[in-house]
Design a protein that fits this description.
Layout lengths: L1 E8 L3 H12 L4 E4 L13 E2 L4 H7 L2 H7 L6 E6 L2 E6 L9 E2 L2 H14 L3 E3 L2 E9 L2 E8 L5 E10 L23 E9 L7 E7 L2 E7 L4 E9 H10 L4 H12 L1 H7 L3 E10 L4 E2 L3 E2 L2 E3 L5 E2 L7 H16 L9 H33 L2 H6 L1 H6 L2 H9 L16 H5 L1
Helix pairs in contact: 1-4, 1-8, 6-7, 8-9
């Protein structure tokens, strides 16, 4: 059997980040990704300014800057025909930017391969067992016999939507009317001011917009299942179009932004989303990204948390390649990682849950309107609470130029 220092399940932002950092530290790494790239994915596509040090460490800051949309300097709330705007909290001289997942994921995966990572794609991990002091992982390949490999470390970076038999994967659950379902689409020629990332408030849902690459605006949103079912029963159109109509009917500010916009590609849908905190270490497997925990997309911190969680883990293991075989050696590392993870991300998850409940009740948002108009810094404070200025990765080696942050 092939042997690796680490097998990483999932080639999205968290998995690719972990693979790059470990490979650069001299580890032999196998990265297993189920989907072909480039691929579109339901996601807000925004990376906050606190990610620039990590992008520099990964060696992709310059490429990211060349591809991404304009710097995002302002936030806002669109509710009904009202808009409440404020500055985003500063993170030094840096500003966050957005890049479509088809480009971001491909950029990170290409960098991982350049660092010597062995990529299995399309492929998926179907089973995991302990084999003495090693892990035995079965990889199901596309149009080829299954492959069994051994590894000292296994990292789950497969996200939270995928159902499977691995200890870190989600199990089937009954459908509920209160489930949150996610949608995303790209638009061209939207009347969204450059540098603005608004929160959209509408009944039983919330959303966000931001300029990403290729002069497109990304609209992502979540809606309760029971509301979507009522929309789908009354309109003979796709679910994505029904959700968009619902947003525009209840939020005139969005209607004005999209009145002359052109839909680029089909709507994407996913869910139910699984916000919350999950074990970061289970049955010998470390979890990063959404496999470890996720916030409601309302705060646009999903990609940031995914990549930063991978950094938190790899910082604790990358210099211990030869002595991580026994559970006794793993336990203190798992505890340290779990504590650091909660410190960095639990506040974002709790804040996001509260904001999601508030934004999906437009009457409550409108009731707060006079206060938001008088004290716009409340929006800035809310963005700071959701992690927009919380630095997890600092002191990069080979930092990008200042133009990357601002251009």
């Amino acid at each position: 059997m092939d042997r690796f220092d680490a097998v990483i399940m999932g080639g999205g932002p968290s998995g690719a980040t972990a693979a790059i950092l470990l490979a650069e530290a001299g580890w032999s790494v196998a990265l297993v990704e189920q989907k072909e790239f480039p691929r579109r994915k339901v996601c807000g596509e925004y990376l906050s300014a606190t990610n620039w040090p990590l992008l520099a460490r990964l060696g992709v800051a310059e490429q990211f800057a060349d591809l991404a949309g304009p710097p995002v300097r302002e936030t806002a709330i669109f509710v009904g025909d009202r808009q409440y705007r404020a500055k985003l909290p500063e993170a030094g001289d840096a500003f966050g930017r957005a890049l479509s997942r088809e480009k971001l994921d491909s950029l990170l995966l290409k960098r991982a391969v350049e660092c010597g990572v062995v990529l299995f794609q399309p492929a998926r991990c179907t089973s995991h067992t302990r084999c003495g002091e090693s892990h035995s992982v079965t990889i199901e390949l596309h149009k080829a016999p299954p492959l069994e490999v051994l590894a000292n470390i296994v990292i789950a970076a497969h996200g939270s939507w995928e159902i499977g038999s691995l200890p870190t994967q989600r199990q089937p659950t009954p459908l509920r009317g209160t489930d949150w379902l996610a949608f995303k689409a790209h638009f061209r020629d939207a009347n969204l001011p450059a540098g603005l990332m608004p929160l959209l408030a509408f009944p039983d849902g919330y959303g966000g917009m931001v300029h990403c690459d290729e002069a497109r605006a990304s609209l992502s949103c979540c809606i309760r299942r029971h509301r979507l079912e009522r929309l789908a029963r009354t309109r003979n159109i796709s679910a994505g179009e029904a959700v968009l109509n619902h947003i525009q009917e209840s939020c005139a500010a969005v209607r004005a932004v999209l009145e002359s916009a052109e839909l680029v590609g089909p709507w994407l849908a996913a869910g139910a989303i699984q916000p919350g905190i999950r074990p970061r270490y289970r049955d010998g497997i470390f979890a990063v990204g959404n496999a470890a925990g996720e916030a409601h997309p309302v705060v646009a911190e999903g990609i940031s948390m995914a990549m930063q969680s991978a950094w938190l883990l790899t910082e604790r293991i990358k210099h211990r390649r030869g002595d991580l075989k026994s559970p006794a050696a793993m336990s203190p590392i798992a505890n340290s990682y779990s504590v650091a993870w909660r410190y960095a991300f639990a506040p974002r998850i709790y804040a996001a849950a509260a904001i999601a409940q508030w934004a999906s009740r437009p009457r409550l948002v409108l009731a707060a309107g006079p206060l938001l108009r008088t004290f716009p810094r409340l929006l800035t404070w809310g963005a700071r609470l959701s992690g927009k200025s919380h630095v997890v990765v600092s002191s990069p080696t080979g930092p990008p130029t200042k133009e990357c942050y601002q251009a």
